[in-house]
Amino acid sequence: MSTVNTSMAEETMAPRANPLRSFNFSGRFWTALVLVVFVILLGLAGFVYPTGPAEKVGSLYDAPGGGLLLGTDNFGHDVLAVLMAGTRTSLIIGLVAGIVATTIGVTIGLVAGYVGGWFEELLMGVTNVVLAIPAIVVLILISVSLPESTIWSLAVVIGITSWPWTARAVRAQASSVATREHIDVARLSGARLGGILVKDVLPYILSYAVMAFVLQVAGAILAEAALSMLGLGPSGANSLGTQLHWSLAFQAVASGAWWAFLPPTLVLTLVSFGFLLLQASLDEVFNPRLRRGKRKQMKQAAARRAEEARALAAQQAAPSDSSLPTRAGDPA
Amino acid sequence: MAVTGALGGAATLAACGGATGGGDGGGGASGEELVGVGNNGEAGTGRSGEAADQLFIAGFQWSPPTTFNTFAAAPAWPASANVAQYIYETLLRFHIVSGELLPGLAASYEVNGTESITLTLQDGITWHDGSEFTPEDVIYTFELGKIDPGLGVASFWNDVDELTAEGNTLNIAINQERKNVGAVLNSLATQFIVAKSQFEQAVEESGDSIAAWETMEPLGTGPFTLELADQTQIILARHEDYWGQDFYGGLPAMTKIIHPIFKSNEDGNLKFQNGELDVMQQFVPQIWKMWESGKPVGTYLREEPYYTPGSMPMLLINTTKPGLDDPAVRKALAHAVDYASIAETAMSGYSSQVLASLIIPDGAEDQWLDRDKAAADGWTFDAAKAEQLLQDAGYEKGSDGFYAKDGQKLGPWKLITPQGWTDWNAALEIVAKNLQSIGVDAATNFPQQAQTQSAIQNGDFDMACWYVAGTGPATPWQRFSDVMSNVDMAPAGQTAYRNYGRWENDEVNDLLTAASSAADDASKLEALTALDNLYRAEVPAFPLMYRPDEFFEFNAGNWSNWPAEDNDYAAPMFRGAGNQWIFELKKIGG
Hints:
Chain A is mainly α. Chain A has 13 helices and no strands. Chain A: One of its GO terms (biological process) is transmembrane transport.
């Protein structure tokens, strides 16, 4: 988990001519974007794919071939169709759980960091307690006790068990932002607590919140897979996890039906890798000190800045008043 | 004889390329034609050393053994009731294919109408400690049910008034109110006989709660004694002074029977495929892949469904729920289920086509089935007809796509079965999709086993996949009783032991009595057919598939002469008559 304390203050100060260029997206970012977009497209492809995930097109574990790119699963359904539906479900669960977890985490962190005092102690105490309990155990217990598990209930359950580390990190940043001058100005001008939190504190940690959200999405997709593998997945829906669950239950590994368990495994790997890479590359975008762009780019940027500085100097030097003191050794 | 020619369905092999029976290098069995080998006609070359004389078995024990008291709640293999006649034995042995009751500890039996049953014991039976087996042991075994009414054996006395001995003959006076000969014979075929000497002590030590008494030294009459039981395995050693050497024609072929304890099906299946296990009782998806890849693996039926059907997992329906209390709806549900799909995928092809009957159309029960009636008044998968039946009964499809009548929607209903019972989990997934597609709102839900069982027994469910009596001396009557009996009806919220769907009917009890007390086969057939007709009219529950009573699969890597269709000297069983083959297996190597 990255908890880099970054501030966009310097970044947002001076508007630049080309905002995209100033973001300085790295190759890693584009790679991550391609991966994530690929998975999202795979999820959406289910809408145009001719075969539905619940259509029986063959028998138990038919090998790929005969118009079925990935063969059939243990129900005789088209693995590719199930994979598309499953990817979509997993992404939905990931997004919803990510939104829930990030919202809870950021809210608690903001309030705790800004308000401080005993209230902060209390909130952080709760957070630390929750952090100490293994999330997967809580997840399993809640899932078992739910009367029925749907996509939405699962997403919310995952969301409300994975916010604590976000809350901790946000609190640290919020408490540092809380001591800055512009907050005092806001307070003196009579702004309310909510207003200050949203308008004056949040923007400074927004970049971090976005990165936390990306991580939460990846984490939630994996958590869903873990739960579904145990058979606690959403009933009546396909997800990457339920696909793995059924392939385990029907011993796809032992009977050599690789097409039943490899694709979901691969997509899970891709999606979590893509999101993690995205988070790491966003880190570079938001925090110039971490940039690891190509040397050539760095040189270009340095040259560009030197050029600008020279031009500025030339502009200033143009009226050339001899009244300006020049230090010894300066070129005249 | 059995080789390559009689292959049939599995003949997608590379034109019988493999050599038979350890052919490479002309091993031990050269020249001899082996029978009872893998479905591909293959056999192994046998193990070397001590292991060549041992039988490795699996699929019965999943946790470390704690007690070998056959009356305990969870006794270890092979002391658990009716699992195998290795240590303990039963008076009679049921044969699942022929339906016969073969002699066991009793040399013969005679049923005198519905009045009484007479048993004559074998001569010279001894316990493992050398002491003599007497009729007293038999009487005491059943009397334990009177000492501790919590034991399963106590139900014997519901149907029996008196059990007395005269010399070597036992006389059982049947309860004349119930006249249930089948249930009594079932007890005689499944109840292990224990030593009075040992269990008198048990009663004393446990203060009459016999189930709680623990022992690691089972004292039986069978051909094996317990040698070792620990976390990883249970080992039985051949009892050289076995009483039945004349009766069975010798001692068992193996010196030891070893049951390794695995964590999961997967471990066992892998070892089985590699020939480290000789025979097992486990669900193996697509077992044909094993013999298609040249392993000497075989099943009793050489072609689909490979296993002899012996049980009938039912979709139980809680008939107290609004909507499900309507027979028309239940019949529509029975039409909505794609049985072929369940058999093919969830059961991996190990189930034949389901008939609309509570009688298994195969083996021992087949004689009681009226096939034409089952086909004429029954149901098969037909989604259009299912919807038609609902419409005829006055249901209309609402805007949500689900049928309803008088504001009563069909659903939302939950289909439950224990988590991890994978074949049933998959079957219910298919059922849920089928019901959704005809406009009935149903979804699956898989609680833990204990939770599922209590929900079913207490009537706290909508629909469930659960088992009823498997083929035995008392079926099909027992199955009709399990599904339909109105005797001692328990209202929802109280524990029921039969008719979990709480289906109420006025005539069923009389029909059940008529079937159980029928004096001859003709009247028995008539009564059973009447029951089956009532069942088809009312559909209190319906079967989803057939399942083997036991998954009997063998690997002829070390032993040949396994029982199979083409070598049917014994039944594909472990329990009852399934001890026959341990005397007849032939070692391949050495």
